[in-house]
Amino acid sequence: MSSGNPFLNTERRPHVDGLFDAHEVALSNRNPGIPLEALRHDVSPIGLHYLLTHFDVPYVPEDDWQVEIAGRVRTAQALSIADIKALPARTLTVTLECAGNGRANMRPRYPSVPWAYEAVGTAAWTGTPLRHVLNGAGLFDDAVEISFIGADRGYDRGQEHAYGRSLKRRDALSEDVLLAWAMNGQPLPPQHGFPLRLIVPGWYGMASVKWLKRIEALATPYDGFQQVSSYMYRTAPDAPSTPVTHMRVKSLLIPPGLGDFYSRHRMVEGGPIPLFGRAWSGAGVGITRVELGIDGAWQEARLGPEQGKFAWRAWSSTWNAERGEHVLSCRATDASGDTQPLTARWDVGGFGNNAAQQVHVHVR
Predict the structure, then answer these.
(1) R_g (Cα) of the chain, nearest Å
(2) 112 strand-pairing partners
(3) In which domain, by residue range, is 91 found?
(4) Which residues in 65-83 are b (16+ Cβ under 10 Å) and which e?
(5) Bridge partner residues of 274 (DSSP)
(6) CA dist list (Å): 99 to 207, 212, 230, 312, 328
(7) How far apart are CA 257 and CA 316, in angstroms?
């Protein structure tokens, strides 16, 4: 192992508390988040939906692309995009959030993409339920997991691998898990997985593998790097781990008034200020309540209509702004009774931070 050679260093990067490293800044430039003012859109415009690309965006010519169906199936096959599109299709509106969203707000933080709040987006994904492909290939009874391997390949902590994830058999056969070829009615753009990607509604975004090249039915659990060495909750480096799966309940508000270019603090005039935001949770669990926090005091917000069980829900409220410095927050509660915490649950990898947002506002 060598700290100077990233291709030989298999250790976790040491946690930091302070200025962002140049590598973190470079990662943020490659992986844009949604501007919070774009939360106004029920469905995020393609160019404003967040992105996380682990390695390079692969160049995938559509005319010779195929996805391999292999492993514990009766009929191994290679399917073209035309073969996939010939299967029954459906469109689902799905909110995806990066599991590392909020990492920048943890102290100390794990050096990676320094998300604050912006790694989220909602799109209308069109594709065929994965189960049609799996049933067509014929799963053997001993197939317990289905792995999904993308065309993107690189190194992470000294390990060369193609990005891959897996789902338990019962999850993979859900009607809601899609092999998607369109986003908001348009062909997938290269950065979102053209020509085919997986969409796993209700899960953090790491499960929705892009540039899908291989689907394999396995008789034993998948042990790829991104499944067992990353995306695990750990309270300490040597503590027992729990897999990252469904999104935690969360909400965001659009910062009101005018923003300062550098600090992003806000300036508003005194008086009634309309506020708007979004709230979501994982596993298809709906939002039942959102509260607006004003300097630590909470008031009930109004919920908008549901867009579907996997999509965020609008909320609104009014703040009677008085002169001075204020901190606005919001917190959501879902149908399972889970409510956002006010402080982050610290995690080794910086995953799953759903602590209530804070927005600093000056009222003149």
Answers:
(1) 21
(2) none
(3) 22-230
(4) bebebbbbbeeeeebbbee
(5) 318
(6) 10, 20, 11, 16, 24
(7) 15
> Per DSSP, what are the bridge partners of residue 162?
153
Using pLDDT thresholds of 50, 70 and 90, give the confidence band for residue 1: very low
Given pLDDT bands bounded at 50, 70 and 90, which one contains residue 120? very high
Helix (H, G, I), strand (E, B) or coil at 168: strand
Q: Assign 3-state DSSP to the chain and report helix, strand, coil percentages, each to 5.
A: 15, 40, 50
pLDDT digits (tens, 9 = 90+) for 4-31: 788 988 888 999 999 999 999 999 999 9
Residue pLDDT, tens place only, 135-146: 999 999 999 999
Give dist(CA 273, CA 256) in Å, integer.
8
Query: Is residue 207 within 8 Å of residue 184, measured between CB atoms?
Result: no
Reported as a single tens digit per residue, the pLDDT across 133-183 is: 999 999 999 999 999 999 999 999 999 999 999 999 999 999 999 999 999
Residue 14 belongs to some domain of the structure: no
Note the pTM of the prediction, 2 decimals: 0.96
Same domain? For 31 and 128 the reply is yes
H-helix or E-strand spanning residue 318? strand 313-321
- Domain co-membership, 299 together with 177: no
Does 332 map to a domain? Answer: yes
Burial 139-173 (b: 16+ CB within 10 A, else e): beeebbbbbbbbbbbeebeeeebbbbbbbebebbb
Count of domains for the chain: 2
Domain identity same for 223 and 257: no
- Residue 226's H or E segment, with its range, is helix 225-228
DSSP 8-state code for residue 219: S
